[in-house]
Design a protein that fits this description.
Layout (H helix, E strand, L loop, with lengths): L3 H20 L18 E7 L5 E8 L5 E7 L15 E7 L5 E7 L5 E8 L5 E7 L14 E7 L5 E7 L6 E7 L5 E7 L1 H4 L11 H6 L5 E7 L5 E7 L5 E8 L5 E7 L14 E7 L5 E7 L5 E8 L5 E7 L14 E7 L6 E7 L5 E8 L5 E7 L14 E7 L5 E7 L5 E8 L5 E7 L14 E7 L1
Antiparallel strand pairs: 1-28, 2-3, 3-4, 4-5, 6-7, 7-8, 8-9, 10-11, 11-12, 12-13, 14-15, 15-16, 16-17, 18-19, 19-20, 20-21, 22-23, 23-24, 24-25, 26-27, 27-28
Length: 458
């Protein structure tokens, strides 16, 4: 016979299970909702453009359930409205949840203005990055050939403020995000040789000597307040070309910067080859905490980073190497994912994805279900890539926390198609954006030249 306490415990447990089952047939509480399975199905595919060339580079879901797609355009016809010249401008499209265009706006001046990222802001608007060669139209200031051009807009796409940062050379912003305290940080590339060492607000006594020897280009981080006014600027790199591509704010208030480094001196202490992935951790004031390189003896190009479920990071891009950190080369160039820890940047795991041809990745996000979705492109039709529609397809795939491939799919036609960026929606679908030259197979309409490509999967 069971002891009376044990019997009471079993009765209580049984009643609790019955109660939970009657309240929630899935066995899950309201605080822990079930995330729908990713089915790998294409919901819709859309193209937008004019007779010139367009390229969609970034996408976010709007608060009303639609999508804000940031692109660059040379057209002044077709789906592009309010544009009367063929120079390159930022192009913003507002789509509904079915991918139908609600409105569009262009931003820029009479020269070349190229968009690079859009992020949501806490006031319901958006912050946009890119670079400009203009000094007219929407651009009120330009110091040289290319400047960072940061544009704050409201939910209707109206400019609230815009700021340029740069010197006489080629200075290009690739990402901007809102910070936890309500300001902004932008990361990109500073042509230090043309700035004459300007652009670093650090006060360390050694900086004047070090800065004068940074000749070709460095990561350039600019911290701004809520109105886009500069708080501090820092550049990091060596004597060759180093380009910052993405930024995350870390829980301690600092920032993680990733990108591409061609250098092997100054701030870079463990270079491997011609170009490496390069990760930098800085504090809230922009001071360097640690840095680490990942790569082989050939070239690696990093483009995007995400937080992981265990508090670390995954960076993605492509590799052409077969040695050092790159353990499993597959083809001419492979997608390369590296998971590294947050305390010092040491590698936890790395993995390559692709086939025998050229494969690359440009965007990664953490999904609600704890997996990771990656947007890129592929010329392959073997190994990890099941098929190929043409010379180059948009390619997406999903990996688990350990870097194992779980799903992959290509989208495209017989010409060149790319996926540049992606976002997960509130109902756990995934939106991908890029560009296409095709008008067959998966791509039914081409407006002329290169169009932006947008597709939804569930």
């Amino acid at each position: 016979m069971l002891p009376i306490k044990r019997l009471y415990y079993l009765i209580f447990t049984a009643l609790l299970l019955i109660s939970c089952g009657s309240d929630d047939s899935t066995g899950t509480s309201d605080d822990d909702p079930i995330v729908p399975d990713f089915l790998g199905e294409v919901v819709w595919i859309k193209t937008f453009g004019g007779t010139g060339d367009e390229d969609a580079i970034s996408v976010v879901q709007s608060n009303d359930g639609g999508y804000m797609v940031l692109a660059s355009t040379k057209s002044m016809d077709g789906d592009i409205t309010g544009k009367s010249t063929t120079d390159l401008d930022y192009w913003l499209l507002k789509l509904d949840e079915n991918g139908e265009k609600l409105w569009d706006k262009t931003y820029g001046g009479s020269e070349q203005d190229k968009a690079s990222s859009i992020s949501k802001t806490s006031d319901g608007g958006y912050i946009i990055s890119g670079f400009t060669a203009s000094i007219d139209g929407d651009v009120t200031e330009n110091a040289g050939f290319h400047d960072y051009w940061i544009v704050k807009i409201n939910s209707s796409g109206d400019i609230q403020w815009e700021k340029s940062f740069g010197f006489i050379g080629q200075d290009q912003a690739f990402k901007v995000i809102e910070t936890a305290e309500g300001g902004y940080i932008a990361i990109g590339f500073l042509d230090v040789g043309q700035s004459g060492g300007e652009g670093n607000d650090a006060t360390e006594s050694s900086d004047s000597t070090r800065n004068s020897l940074h000749s070709l280009g460095d990561y350039w981080a600019i911290k701004m307040d809520s109105n886009g006014n500069k708080i501090w600027r820092r550049y990091f790199g060596g004597s060759h070309v180093d380009q910052g591509k993405d930024v995350l704010q870390t829980p301690d208030g600092g920032f993680l910067l990733i990108g591409i480094s061609e250098s092997s001196d100054f701030d870079i202490t463990n270079a491997y080859g011609a170009n490496d992935f390069w990760a930098i951790k800085i504090n809230a004031d922009g001071d360097l905490i640690w840095e680490n390189s990942f790569g082989g003896s050939e070239s690696e190009f990093a483009y995007s980073i995400t937080n992981t479920t265990d508090g670390n990071f995954i960076v993605i891009g492509d590799t052409r190497s077969s040695d050092f950190n790159v353990s499993t080369p597959l083809g001419n160039a492979d997608v390369w994912a590296v998971k590294f820890n947050s305390s010092n940047g040491n590698i936890i795991w790395e993995n390559t994805f692709g086939g025998l041809e050229f494969d690359s990745a440009r965007g990664i996000i953490q999904l609600e279900n704890g997996k990771y979705a990656i947007a890129g492109n592929s010329r392959s039709s073997n190994n990890h890539v099941e098929n190929n529609n043409g010379s180059n397809d948009a390619w997406m795939f999903i990996i688990d926390e350990d870097g194992n491939l779980e799903f992959e799919k290509n989208i495209g036609g017989s010409q060149i198609d790319f996926a540049n960026n992606l976002t997960e929606t509130t109902n756990n679908e995934i939106i991908f954006v890029g560009n296409t030259d095709s008008n067959d197979i998966d791509i039914t309409i081409n407006k002329g030249g290169k169009d932006i490509l947008i597709y939804k999967m569930k």
